[in-house]
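Ticket reopened. Same input as before:
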Amino acid sequence: MQQEQFYYDNKVVRNFAYASIIFGLIGMTVGLLIALQLVFPNLNFGIPYTTFGRIRPLHTNAVIFAFVGNGLFAGVYYSLQRLCKSRMYSDVLSNINFWGWQIIILAAAITLPLGLTSGKEYAELEWPIDIAIALIWVVFGWNMFGTILKRRERHLYVAIWFFIATFVTVAVLHIVNSFEMPVSLFKSYSWYAGVQDALVQWWYGHNAVAFFLTTPYLGLMYYFLPKAANRPVYSYRLSIIHFWALIFLYIWAGPHHLLYTSLPDWAQSLGVVFSVMLIAPSWGGMINGLLTLRGAWDKVREDVILKFFVVAITAYGMSTFEGPMLSLKNVNAIAHFTDWIIAHVHIGALGWNGFLTFGMLYWLFPRIYGKELYSKKLANFHFWIGTLGILFYAIPLYWAGITQSLMWKEFTVEGYLKYPNFLETVTQIIPMYALRSVGGLLYLIGVIVMTYNLVKTALSGKLIANELAEAPALTKEYGVAKNEHWHRWIERRPVQLMVLSLVVILIGGAAEIIPTFLIKNNIPTIASVKPYTPLELQGRDIYIREGCNTCHSQMVRPFRSETERYGEYSKAGEFVYDHPFLWGSKRTGPDLHRVGGKYPDSWHYNHMLEPSSMSPGSIMPTYPWLLDDDLDTTSTAAKIRAMQTVGVPYPVGYDLIANKDLMHQADSIKNTLAESGIKTASNKEIVALISYLQRLGKDIKLTTKVQ
Amino acid sequence: MAVLVLLIGISLLVAIGFLMSFFWSVKDGQYDDDYTPSVRMLFDDELLENQSKK
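Engineering reply: fixed in the latest deploy. New output:
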């Protein structure tokens, strides 16, 4: 059989690897900063761009999409070429993929601190960036399928299947969840409202974990672990079985993020059942990974790369055991909204994604630079300080989560809440927050050491940009005729054709179906629930801009401990005009769904200026700019029109007179503030925010009064 | 909760897509041999001659 010679592209791998390191450093530094802000609120610096609510999304986006994202591209571009015995399909597409992804990250790094956010967790980026993500993702898929089609190895190694599943599913999830109505270039409203938005969001959110942080990394595990150990995977058959089982189960588990919320019960149960089943294929992967090292544990003692992989796979096993457990309603009732969840995701992120990336990088750099690793000692130091960092990060947060949850739920013998003041349950766990920052710091030091080690390795060698390889051609080749009809080009590419048509169908289908189908379904079931007034709508957008929902939930669950503390539990019908929903996923501060009318306007005014003046010991940042900045009322009309498009029943032509109502309401708030001795102009942002906060959760109280 | 219909529909669509690719992979003989691929991926022939650019 005739041998063909060709070159692997290592340059794109190098680029992605460096991008992963750089953004890893940035993302983790921001993570450390926000961890410290919970202990020392002054570290918010009193300016908008560095406040917790705005840079927490920056941290999550940087770590997930920049650090892990670039890491997965580096790993896929390296392994796919070798598994297919072929160079990437197109260098141009590789470059577009690389630079496009970096520009998206840059756009995220600029827009998120500016407060330009859609308000949906892990999908905060605004609509123009969403479109760019979809396009670059398709470029990645195109390049990948092109490579698969011109492969010289007939068998698709199991890792490739994981990559394919990643591409297809992330594309679908991203497009469906990002369906939004633009108001201006950097402002949009989610097309879905309330419960429906919540369901779409967590269908996406959970599968982002599944198909962005899990499946591609399992693929990488199946490539880099056998390579590093120089022995085949324990059971190739198990890898195939657990792959198919995993992708069929994962996509149904999303509703476990919404247990005890206003989501219909049967949908919650569906999520629970699938989440529990998921333990089987997840542990299939973990067992397969760990048993690959059976009889080779002496190698693990010697080889730091294998050490990283062992901890990564163990962390994967831990978090995929914890996941199904947390999906049980009784466990979820304790853990949800607490730091337990933060600990859980960091076992996954720091352990599984982080350590697998580090092991992979330590393995890659010597190979693409043709030089031994600069220092094994430093790599070992990184391993130990990183492992210690994970423990110091996770254990205090588990402790904090359980402590706080039990305090929320504790009653005295007389039947009153033992800790009626939410703040007491916060100050109790601040030492844990401090310890957690130490863990984060240790982990970050490890990454800095790794960066030094890898750069030294790179400098001592020379990049083998094009690596020669040899393989026989696959016998079945498509002949290319000269002067052929243009359509032959796409006909020879059935997979791209399928993928492209899938994308087209989904966009088209979504555009057709969603408006007609969903909006009619949003008819309120509670007659007293009315759309937000223009001022409240503007205030709500300030709430979204400042990321209040990163620390405050708006979902009172039907537990006595919550109805005692906050008031009536939340009903699905109350959220029908919430584009997007703002239920939140974490209660660093108290729930706000029933905050309307609880405090006077002046309380909110002083609280925003200096939270600790109203609640001594509060760790909430200060928001002085809300008191100084003027509300931009030029956007009101466009916002009302956008809301009308997504089905909020403002009267026809209301956009033209909305600002008149807005000023009227603002003046009345100004007057109540003046009665409490606070002088402010009615056109300040704080006035709009107060109007929104005072409206929250009040509509259903009106019905009670009437009855 | 019409969105449930939408999400289940899309999820089913994705699942059916995967099911089809599963059937394809079985029919194509991808899994006829469930051992040697795991060994073959370990071998990358290192070619050292004319390592320079294409």
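The CA atoms of residues 24 and 30 of chain B lie 9 Å apart. The longest helix of chain B spans residues 2-27. Please confirm and we'll close it.
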